[in-house]
Amino acid sequence: MPRKKKKNLLPLIIKSLLILLIIAAAGGIGLLCYVEGGELIRTSRRFTVKKIVIDPTLRFIQHRDLQVIQGQSIFDVDLQDMESRLMLKYPEISELRVERRFPEEIHLVAKKRMQLAQVPFRQSFLVVDDEGVVLAKKDKRDKELPAIEGFKIPRGPVELGSRIRHQRLRTALEIITSFNENAALSSYRIDNLDIDQSSKIMVYLDRDIKAILDDQRVDRKINVLGFVLTQGNLDLREVNYIDLRFKDPIIGKK
């Protein structure tokens, strides 16, 4: 009887092995088709980069910096490497994203950093944005940008795209930003700021106007300055300074 059972099991074992072989063969064929199909798609002209769409704020990017991916397979474009290279060369770019748009487009989306002020540095001037990021180095002062004086840039290399970290600089940038956003002050311009003392910040405007404030409640003080300068009964030719550090502004006469 035991021998009869073994004879009955043999066909089942053979059948099971055949089924496993068929499954393995089918899987191998499927994998091969997947690989070959993927390679065909990757190398297909349908999926080569034919168009690079650039955000309107990034029109300053030179065409030659993008030519390298033109005609490449869209699958072969290294998005992270491209982002790193562009942000290194163009520090004025903020929050850059390089995206694939199948089947044949690469899109560059970002926010452009805007020049806000300039800082004297080693016989030159560093142009910075509202976060203190260095956007450019200039040999001469730009008359269109406020100059920030009265603090020392921390030691170490200062490269394009690096951020100058200093509390007094942050305060100065906050003052300029608040000033620029105040509608009542739209006809005035800041020439330069002296932030040597955080309790006595000197803000020099055009028309020979001088404002004094500290680093507390900057927005409120700028609002008060806007109110004072728009008073019709104030003769600015007689004003030496406007001190905003107290509850009520103090106007010093010449």
Characterise the protein shown here.
The protein has helices at 2-43, 79-89, 167-181, 218-229; strands at residues 51-54, 93-101, 105-112, 117-121, 124-128, 134-138, 147-149, 190-194, 201-205, 209-213, 239-243, 250-253. The chain is an alpha/beta fold and 254 residues long. Strand 10, helix 4 (218-229) and strand 11 form a beta-alpha-beta unit. The protein is elongated and about 115 Å long. 18% of the residues are buried.
**What Rg do the Cα atoms give?**
33 Å
**Could you state the CATH homologous superfamily of the largest domain?**
Cell division protein FtsQ/DivIB
Tell me the series of helices and strands, N- to C-terminal.
Answer: HEHEEEEEEHEEEHEE
CATH class of the largest domain: Alpha Beta
Low-confidence stretches: 31-37
In short:
The protein has 254 residues and is α/β, with parallel strands linked by helices.
List keywords for this structure.
three-stranded mixed beta sheet; alpha/beta; elongated; 31% helix; Rossmann fold; 4 helices; 2 domains; 254 residues; single chain; 25% strand; six-stranded mixed beta sheet; Ubiquitin-like (UB roll)
